[in-house]
Amino acid sequence: MKGKYPTEAFALGMILFSAGLKEAFAAGSLMILTAVFAEFLKNLLKPLVPAWSSALCAALAAGSLCASAFLLGFWALGIEMDAGTWSMTFLLGLLAARHVLRAELQAEYGELLWECAVFWGFWVLLAAVREFLATGAVFGSFIVRGSYQSKGFLDPAFGLLGTGLALAFTNGLLKKRGPDAESLLLALPLIIFARPLEMVSLGPLAGLLWTILAPAALFVSCRQTLKFSRTSSSFRGLPTELLTLGFIYMILGLY
Fold it and tell me: Membrane among the record's keywords (predicted)?
């Protein structure tokens, strides 16, 4: 049985907002709000307007709500968010709407909330671990300083690795396969937004294209190979692909 939670939206949200417990807690709650709102609006408009119109309205409304909620919520919590990150929150809303429009959830809000909450729990837990390993603090409160701690844990590579594990743990706990997800919808915007390497020597334009096309080509190649790999049902699909992208980020970050 497939899960009902919006995998793509939650995965991208965790990649972007899992460097600390505070932002993970806030982002997860806002993502749940967006997913439920998108499902509610879809069911509200479906009998009233044509299918294409209800889908378009649900997508735009979910994207707008998500971006607005993140902006206000993070401002209220004193969490800084630049313009680029804020623009990505609109994409989170679009991905949540895409899921509810394709999944035919039949207004099963209880099951949707339960599955979202399970993933959110792993999101918060791994964000706390990541924050502690990077800064020695949890929820902004300093605990201890150790030689094993490094700011490198705040890099996108560890966000990708943590997200892949969170998806796999969620699938395993729910004993369900993850919903059908298109990893390129996450990978390509992420590679453009947070490029894993810089190539200043090639010039501005050529360097920009290289730092986008090279990681994208590597990911697509690995993604094709993974189709023939034998993995457990919990890791199959998006979790393994995100773990792969995380290792690509880690390797390219050395250069």
Answer: yes
Q: What's the structural domain count of the chain? A: 1
pLDDT band at 90 (very low <50, low <70, confident <90, very high): very high
> Distance between terminal CA atoms of the chain?
42
- Asked whether residue 211 is assigned to any structural domain, the reply reads no
For residue 147, being part of any structural domain is answered with: yes
Alpha-carbon distance of 100 to 183, in angstroms, equals: 17
Where in the sequence is the domain holding 93, given as residue range(s)?
7-181
Token pair belonging to 36 = 């439920």
Does residue 210 belong to any structural domain of this protein?
A: no
Burial of 185 (0-12, 13-18, 19+ CB in 10 A): middle
User: pLDDT tens digits, residue range 200-236?
Assistant: 777 777 778 888 888 888 888 888 887 777 777 778 8
Q: 142 φ, ψ to 5°?
A: -70, 135
Is 160 among the domain residues?
Answer: yes
| Structure tokens given for 178 | 């993850």
Q: Are 215 and 195 in contact (CB under 8 A)?
A: yes
